[in-house]
Amino acid sequence: MDRVICYQKPGPGRLDLVTEGGFVRDNFLNLDNTANINLVYENYLKGSTVILSGLEETWEPLVVFCRKLEGQLSHPVAVAVYLTPPNHHGVQPHFDTQENFILQVDGVKHWKVYGAGQELPRVEGSYTPVARERLPELLLETELHPGDMLYVPRGFVHEAEARDSASLHITVDVHVRTWRDFLEDALAAMADRNPRFRKSLPPGLLNGSHAKAQLEEGFRELMEMVHREVRLSDALGKHAEKLIVARPPLPDGHFALLHAEIGLDTPLRKRTAMLTRRFQEEAVAGIQFSGNQILGPVKIAEALRHIDETEIVVPSQLPGGLSNNEKLVLVRRLVRVGLLTHASEGNSAGAAKRG
């Protein structure tokens, strides 16, 4: 905890202090908005829980863990670490908008889980405190010891208290994507393709019957168009762009590989914790992966499948009827854009394939 606070210098949102009465604001910060470690110590000794968030982006073991979990779940994953002083509550009773997996690392913490404060809250929402007089029915009361895990679904109210020693736990937050998100992605893709969806609404649409009639006609036409033309593949592609392409690959000294010689017998592999999604539409084949994507003619589809599913990739062994020159062009491009590295770089592929 000390090293992260001192060396990474997290500000508000990445470092928070909280008591049963709510969040502690500002009195642990330097003038440049970074944390003053001595003031953090002082607040902790007074009963504040120290929360470090965003470690899925800054601490490599957790980055790899979260990427691999994202590869299995196909939903974004984040991590927060909670350090609570002895015999103190962490956060006041509340519910979250994400799925929570609590992993107890050190000390013992007493947990209470109540019924839902809100059924399936919007994922875009935030932590919502619940007054004690309004707590739902108590469903579970338990103690977590090091190595224990507790799952708290989104919307369910919960609270926790450290026992006679300090408690350290990791919360793995799964920020699930919902059907609403999926449908929004499908409509956004349609609007990208069809300018009809990008037309302005009629002027005065809130003021008169003429504009209302135009709205009704236009709305009906667009809904019919959606029914005819909406594509599942569009929603999947948009989801992959957010989950996979928008996340950079892990730093692994890739600069050195950009000038390396790659021949037909050079062993290659996917870079560590690399998320991937292959797709094929009409005459186009492609692969999306952490930080980038490529498109090409459909004849590369079989080679991309082999690259995606094989731990060690040898260019000469690529299937699909490509010439030796085409095989080299493809793998060299995949090294250049960040999917592949030399198999000798690191101990294992560590790839996290998206299902």
Write the layout of secondary structure elements.
Blueprint: H1 2-8, E1 15-19, E2 22-24, H2 37-45, E3 49-53, H3 60-73, E4 77-84, E5 94-95, E6 99-106, E7 109-116, E8 128-129, E9 138-144, E10 149-152, E11 156-162, E12 167-174, H4 179-193, H5 209-229, H6 232-245, E13 268-270, E14 275-281, E15 284-289, E16 292-297, H7 301-309, H8 324-336, E17 340-342, E18 352-353
Parallel strand pairs: 14-18
Antiparallel strand pairs: 1-2, 1-3, 3-4, 4-12, 5-8, 6-10, 6-12, 7-9, 7-11, 13-17, 14-15, 15-16
Helix pairs in contact: 4-6
Tag the structure with descriptive keywords.
Chromosome 14 open reading frame 169, putative, Outer Surface Protein A, domain 3, metal-binding, NO66-like, 3 domains, seven-stranded antiparallel sheet, single chain, alpha+beta, Jelly Rolls, 355 residues
Task: Describe, in short, the structure shown.
The protein folds into three domains: 173 residues, Cupin (Jelly Rolls, Sandwich), CATH 2.60.120; 52 residues, no CATH class; 110 residues, Alpha-Beta Complex (Outer Surface Protein A, domain 3), CATH 3.90.930. It is 29% helix and 26% strand. It is built from eight helices and 18 strands.
Give an account of the 3D structure:
It is a single chain. The protein has helices at residues 2-8, 37-45, 60-73, 179-193, 209-229, 232-245, 301-309, 324-336; strands spanning 15-19, 22-24, 49-53, 77-84, 94-95, 99-106, 109-116, 128-129, 138-144, 149-152, 156-162, 167-174, 268-270, 275-281, 284-289, 292-297, 340-342, 352-353. The protein is globular and about 70 Å long. The two termini are 34 Å apart. Strands 2-1-3-4-12-6-10 form a 7-stranded antiparallel sheet. It has a 4-stranded mixed sheet with strand order 16-15-14-18, sandwiched between helices. A 3-stranded antiparallel sheet has the order 9-7-11, with no helix packed on it. The chain has 3 domains: 2-174, Sandwich (Jelly Rolls), CATH 2.60.120; 179-230, no CATH class; 244-353, Outer Surface Protein A, domain 3 (Alpha-Beta Complex). Helix content is 29%, strand content 26%. Helix 4 crosses helix 6. It has 355 residues and is an alpha+beta fold. Its cofactor is Fe(2+). One of its GO terms (molecular function) is metal ion binding.
